[in-house]
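Exercise 7.
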Amino acid sequence: MSSPRSLAPRRLLALALAVPVLLAPVAPAFAAADRPPSVQDRLDALTTAPEIPGALAYIRHPGGRTVTIVSGTAERGAERRMPGASGRLRIASVSKSVIAATVLELADQGKVDLSKPVETYLPGVIRGKGMHGKDITVRMLLRQTSGLPDFTPVADWSKIGRQDLLKLALTLAPTPRGEFAYSNTNYLVLGKVIRAVTGRDFRVVSRDLVFKPLGMRDTYWPAKGETGIRGPHARTYGVHPLKPKDGVVDVTRLPGYEFDASGGLISTPRDLDRFWRARKPAGTEFVKIGEQGWPKGARYGYGVMSIPLSCGGDLLGHGGDLPGVSVFSGRDRAGRTATVYVTGSAEGESRQRLIAAFDTALCSR
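Solution. The predicted structure, written as tokens, is:
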């Protein structure tokens, strides 16, 4: 991924809704040979970078024991501890996992048929270069195999909220239908499908079908025009999409509503734990990921990635980035869950260290 400092506002929307894909195990960046690095070691290595003030890991072991591990500070220039498992953060593309869970619940209710074409629910909506709603099923949207191109290359931050992202995507050339190609457009369309079959906004439906039943009381979609984060949270730091020349600044306030179903959700590590404990691996249909940059054996299912862990087995989870925050969240098949995030945009060496921290968190015993 290019440095945010070199990107124009148009390209910066891609950063806002990006998904981390380099989840391969990485070599420890520590000199100590007497023991493997701990989660605390991993987080401390992250916060040595000036662009990442704070880091947090929340882990639940299969027996129910939980641990919260923090490093750094919740506010640059202040000795303020990270807010813990109940602190809110923008979870970016981890939102896709929640949207997928909402669609699957609607399928269980008989309101959505995953094998039906999108045209069934959104007649006349998908029309583009070699793209038609009759050729794309709901299942393809969930699995990122629809062929719909990602809207982020042509979206413009300076016009956010005043542009039709789907129409923009449909001006682009499609990707090969039936093959994995990560695209935020797929989940933008799923949000529209949810509204079509329920008559209600996807934000309301996911609240009623996912947040409330699972007790995710601190999870919410920002209201239109809302830029802050409610309740306890750390400050986040990155390159502001509209002011890239200013370098790294406080970007805690962002137009979260406009990130839509692809990445607008705000949650907590504790609520994400509740979500992943309820999201069982059984029944998930995965497709092989052939894109460059993904580790060997990586697959994508219904809003979840399946990726090998360094300790054996694999994770079921997702990752995401926004200016000022990078996050990974998920579970293994034994029931261990973990959420790891940093309050800066993790790139380059920091990205690798974040990946290593998440891998260590899920492999810890």
